[in-house]
Amino acid sequence: MALCNRQLAVEGGMKRSINGAHPALLLLLGINLFNYIDRQILAALEPDIRASFFATGDVNAMTKTGLLGDAFFVTYMISAPILGFLADRISRWVIVGSAVILWSLASGGSGLAATFAILFATRICVGIGEGGYGPAAPTILSDVYPIETRGRVMAIFYTAIPVGSALGYVIGGLIGAHFGWRWAFYLVAPPGLLFGLLCFLQRDPRVATHHLVQESPRRSMGDYLRLFRTRSYLINCVAQTLMTFVTGGLGFWASA
What we know:
Elements: H1 2-18, H2 21-53, H3 61-87, H4 92-112, H5 116-144, H6 147-158, H7 160-179, H8 181-199, H9 206-209, H10 221-227, H11 231-253
Helix pairs in contact: 2-3, 2-5, 2-6, 2-7, 2-8, 3-5, 4-5, 4-8, 7-8
């Protein structure tokens, strides 16, 4: 009987948390849209950036601008597991809000960059910021939606990837052609800052029900290392790496 009452209490808590689920989805969807707009704006503006920082006859110019993409991906790869670890231990909304504000400020800073080295540094900061958003945002949606609807919710959330990527090329190309490449970075920063501030007004969904359920045991490093002995996990990691390598390269150089 006590177990049944406990289960009903947990279910009641989950239903209460769903009341704020749709606003959370809309907010995270908007952020994800600007996440991918920001990624592809750089690719759309690469020819203009190259012309701005390097001489026409510089045979290594494209190699150097290619490092801007590497700066993002490498720092994203390093920061994502670290910030994902933190998101399991502190408020996920705090992680998401901080990450969005960081990458938005860095994007605006990209437009202010007086040298290529400064531009390179801003793309590192963008990678760190987006590395914090990537692992934390889907877990918030998992917290506020029941398992029966999560598949549909995640499908909606990830529609921002193709839509945002396409808009990044369009917005970057149009603004760059009419106002210069720096203005493209300036104009994507304010919406991101607004989204980031809104995150700090959200309540961590785990707070509502943490007293009703038994806390999950903390995972040890050995638990994580065992993943690397799981064949299906390794195959999936390799496949995702190869896919990202190809699509990332094509996406970055498509406008060149």
